[in-house]
Structures are given as structure tokens and as C-alpha cells.
Amino acid sequence: MQTLTKQLIELKLANRVFTDAQLERVIEGSKQRRYHLVNRAIKAGELLRLRRGSYLLAEPFRNHPVHPFALAQAFAPGSYVSYETALAHHGWIPEAVYTTTSVTPGRKSLEYQHGSFGHFSFHPLAIQPGYFLELVDREQSRKQSMLVAKPIRALMDLVCLRKVEWQGVEWLDESLRIDYESLRQVTGADIRTLKLVYKHKRVIRFLDLLARELGND
Prior knowledge:
Elements: H1 3-10, E1 18-19, H2 20-26, H3 31-43, E2 47-51, E3 54-57, H4 68-75, E4 80-81, H5 83-89, E5 99-103, E6 110-114, E7 118-123, E8 136-141, E9 144-149, H6 151-162, H7 169-176, H8 180-183, H9 188-194, H10 201-214
Parallel strand pairs: 5-7
Antiparallel strand pairs: 1-3, 2-3, 4-5, 6-7, 8-9
Helix pairs in contact: 5-6
């Protein structure tokens, strides 16, 4: 076992994603020493580089598998899981989703393909300042923390991203296979909150017509 791997396990950091800055705080010595320890652990297959400056111990040295939603936040700090990924997570759509998609607070879309953990994509939206995390929950899985949109927030994020016009609830059933009974879980308070979130009038109109359909207007 590599020196860095052993030290991270002893410090109870085996299940965490960590950065160069965090390694600097726990590894004594020079920058050059840290560089060599990190490279040795990577070459030994004990440490995985997620992206530049971000790492994770390999599976045999962890107590449990890493959750892809937690990894998404490591790839793009400040992001939250949404779109089809969150809809599938909440059981609103039946299809399996093989890309972990998130909303990023940045201005550019990002894509990461990792050989061990799969595909991650991040897309910005036109959101009003101060409303980025409305109807977004913090979830825990084996002490891993992740931000996940509630189903109606994930749906409206998707509507905003795809620039979808209201076409009736039939479109939601035919295009996304969202069951009407799932939509009935949406409250008037949810609709009113989301109308404060998005900048585009198209999305506001979609929410108004959805509320009318559900009797929440």
C-alpha cells in the first residue's frame, strides 16, 4: 500500500473526494513531495484522478462505492443533479438514465467522461439571482452528501433547457412518460416558487398552464 493511501485511510478520508488544497493540509513536506506521493499512488492504481486537482481513492480502499451524484458535485462544485437524472431518481420517468446531468451555476456547459464512473454533463440555465437552489434537496447516501432537484424542479429545468412550449399534459406523458398521478403531487406553492426562479417568459407560461391543468392556479 502506498504511503499516501495509508495516510488517507488513517485520517478517515478514504470515502471522500479531495482536492490538491486538501492534500496540502494533510501531507507534510514540500509541494514536490506531495506531487511524487500522488503520482505514485495513481500509478499503483490506488488513487484515481477525477479531473485536474481532484482525486478519489480506488474502490478496494473505500468502505463503500462512490455515488455518482456525489461525484457530480466534485466535478462541478456548486452544481445540483437535475433534468432526466433527477426525474428517474424520483421515479417520475421509467427509463434508465446513463448520464448524470446537473445544473451548473457557471455559464458554460461541461462534459466529463471518466473510465471508471461514466458520463457527466452540466448545463447552465437562466435563473434569477438568489433562486438557484429553490426546490433542491440535500440528500445523504452512506455519508455522501449531494444536491438533487425535487421532481417538479427537475422537470422545469428540463423545460427551460430544451425551450419547450406548453403542449398539454399529453406531451409530458408521450415525450417523457410522466404519469399524471405524479404531476398531481405538485402543489400551488411549488408553482408559485418556481415562477420566481426562471427568467424566460416561456417557462413562466408553462408553469401557469400546468397550474391551471392541475387546478393549482
